[in-house]
């Protein structure tokens, strides 16, 4: 939120959400380590890529809708 307005919305929204997802993965990795299970890096990478693609698509659709709403007024 601190960089909104200073950098493009697309970058600030996607990166902010990806940082939150990365925090979740760190919790998952820590839990697996505490339970003495090996980290599942393939799963982490797959979920990160899918999350990033979903966020990029969602934000691009939302920003496109915002532009259309401004032009239709």
TrEMBL record:
Keywords: Membrane, Transmembrane, Transmembrane helix. The chain crosses the membrane at residues 6-31, 43-63. It comes from the Bacteria. This is Uncharacterized protein. It comes from Magnetofaba australis IT-1. The lineage of its organism: Bacteria, Pseudomonadati, Pseudomonadota, Magnetococcia, Magnetococcales.
């Amino acid at each position: 939120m601190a960089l909104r307005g200073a950098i493009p919305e697309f970058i600030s929204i996607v990166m902010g959400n990806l940082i939150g997802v990365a925090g979740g993965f760190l919790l998952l990795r820590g839990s697996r380590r505490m339970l003495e299970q090996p980290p599942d890096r393939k799963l982490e990478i797959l979920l990160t890529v899918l999350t990033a693609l979903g966020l990029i698509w969602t934000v691009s659709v939302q920003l496109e809708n915002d532009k259309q709403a401004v032009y239709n007024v």
